[in-house]
Amino acid sequence: MRARELGFDLCGIAPAAAFRELGVLREWLDRGYAGEMGYMARTAERRADVRAVMPSARSVVVLGTLYNTDQPYSTEVDDPGEALISRYAWGDDYHDVLGERTDALRGWLVNQHAGSVETRVYVDTGPVQERVYAQQAGLGWVGKNTCLINPVLGSWLFLSEILCSLPLESDTPGFDQCGTCTLCLDACPTDAFPEPGVLDSTRCLSYLTIETKGAIPPEQRVGIGTHVYGCDVCQDVCPYNDAAPISTDPAWQPRMLLDRPRLGELWSRSDAALRAAIRNGPMTRARVKRVRRNLAVALGNSGEISAAEALETASETSRPDAPSIAEPLVAEHIDWARHRLASRNLLRSTKRR
Ligand code: SF4
Ligand code: SF4
Question: FRET pair for 296, CA 20 to 30 Å: which of 62, 92, 316, 331?
Fold first, then answer.
């Protein structure tokens, strides 16, 4: 009840135990599926059991917050000039928003009990395999697309957790309801699932556009299509999201510049305008330089004439308001994009003006 008042859509409790699913991480790391995400290996020991980060933990309160908005799914967008940005990144930074709300619930929980209670809050920040605990807390199940799916709300859910030293009564774990469906596996544009429920991050567009700090491997750039930040395809096609409810929470509504933006429009914006658009949102993590890098690749893939025109004037002298395009990382991706457009006769010259 209190969780609902604070804006959460789901709340459940799991025991703080070493569930079998938590052990799968080690093998996943050994297969190299984490790519550049070295922090995953560094924290693997602690990720194996929440009691490694808080030895007194007896329970894990898991909270789910719906962030779906009234906008078409990326798979419904039939416009090569539209920049595809992951749904979760359109609004405010969920770490901040949910950090405050989860902490408010934590305070309430502590006040309900006499005596000392140890607690700790996590919002996708600490070494907690939150989807495993979410399933154990009855919020849903981890689907073949590796997302937590609730049978009623779907998978557009932010998760946050409170580790707690109290032995709270646990909920019944969720059970797998994917059945024989393979829609997400079949739809993935880069074949990033070596097997159901196992993601090779190094092939995933979310990893390539967000986690990759330097150059995106050239052989993987075409596969990025017009995805500028993240990818939602394996959630878009999930039948449990067909009728996912809409959240009216202002925190998750798209910011003006991120509301179905066009590639050329984003590209034409100054660095300062891009920085302002992503400030205090999840995309801040990528910074303007990487957003610009991703935009260059998407423009190259777009094939839309206005996208080609946008790249035609991509030089540091023509864009003093956008110094990021002169950064070696960005410039190299611009060159790649220009060659790609020229090879499709969409650009007159590969030389910059
Ligand atoms: S996010 Fe996109 S690229 Fe990554 S696994 Fe899902 S469909 Fe594939
Ligand atoms: S698309 Fe099908 S297989 Fe994939 S997560 Fe959804 S229900 Fe499961």
Answer: 92
Residue 276 has a pLDDT of: 95
* Residues with a CB atom less than 6 Å from ligand 2: 143-145, 149, 178, 181-184, 237-240
If one compares 36 and 97, the residue with the highest pLDDT of the two is 97
Tokens of 13: 């409790």
- Could you give the CA distance from residue 298 to residue 216 in angstroms, rounded to a whole number? 12
Structure tokens at 27: 């093998």
Question: What separation in Å is there between the alpha carbon of 19 and the centre of ligand 1?
Answer: 26
User: How many angstroms does the Cα of residue 214 sit away from the middle of ligand 2?
Assistant: 32
- Give the position of tokens 């967008």: 77
226 φ/ψ angles, rounded to the nearest 5 degrees: -105, 25
Q: What is the mean pLDDT of residues 3-32?
A: 92
**How far is residue 347 from each of residues 198, 297, 310, 328, measured CA to CA in Å?**
40, 15, 10, 22
- Mutate which of 178, 180, 237, 242 for ligand 2? The one with the most ligand atoms within 8 Å of its CB, which is 178
In the chain, domain spans: 2-261
CB-based burial label for 307 (10 Å; 0-12, 13-18, 19+): buried
Mutational pocket test of ligand 2: of 141, 152, 183, 186, the residue with most ligand atoms within 8 Å of the beta carbon: 183
pLDDT tens profile 239-257: 999 999 999 999 999 998 9
Residues 16 and 51 sit within 8 Å (Cβ to Cβ): yes
With vertex at residue 198, the alpha carbon angle to CA 241 and CA 223, rounded to the nearest 5 degrees, is 75
pTM for the structure as a whole: 0.93
CA distance 240 to 220: 30
Ligand 1 atom closest to the CA of 203, numbered from 1: 3
> Do 138 and 179 touch, CB atoms closer than 8 A?
no
Confidence of residue 316 (pLDDT cuts 50, 70, 90): low
Ligand 1 mean position, distance from CA 36 (Å): 17
Q: Is the pLDDT of residue 291 over 70?
A: yes
